[in-house]
Amino acid sequence: MIIEKQCDTDTASAVRCLYEQEVHQYMKPIVVNLPTYTIGLLNDNADYCINIAEKFYYNYKFRESFDLCKKVLTHNPFHQHGLFIYIALLYEMKDKTELFSLGHRLARQCPENPISWLAVGCYYLVTKKPEPTRRYLAKATSLCRSFGPA
């Protein structure tokens, strides 16, 4: 492959691993055969962890996905892709308290971000209140017309 010509073997295998994790998002997490120092670096990489969490989510392994998302969001509470997965997990697990807390915090800290109102809308969806759900999801879409999750 071209990548082997541009960098050493360890780097090429790490790049290939990251690429495969991103491309095959609906498959089960793949076992990687990388040097241990590389795996240690990847385990601290937020994007890599969120990709793995997304795979767990799509394979109905919500607890594993939740743990990875929580780890990433502890270090970076505004990781956009991590928040999408985290909100979806909270909805699937029907965690009203955490959804309320997250939605309230996001709406207070970044009201111009549609993901804030997605979290609030999902809270009302879990509590089975259709009118506020519609209102807050519409607000998320009005902030960004191409906001798919809402």
UniProtKB/TrEMBL annotation:
The UniProt record lists the keyword Lipoprotein: no
Keyword Cell cycle: yes
Coiled coil: none
Keywords (A to Z) from UniProt: Cell cycle, Cell division, Mitosis, Repeat, TPR repeat, Ubl conjugation pathway
GO CC terms: anaphase-promoting complex; cytoplasm
Transmembrane parts of this sequence: none
GO BP terms: anaphase-promoting complex-dependent catabolic process; cell division; positive regulation of mitotic metaphase/anaphase transition; protein ubiquitination
Protein name: Uncharacterized protein
Organism: Adineta steineri
Lineage: Eukaryota, Metazoa, Spiralia, Gnathifera, Rotifera
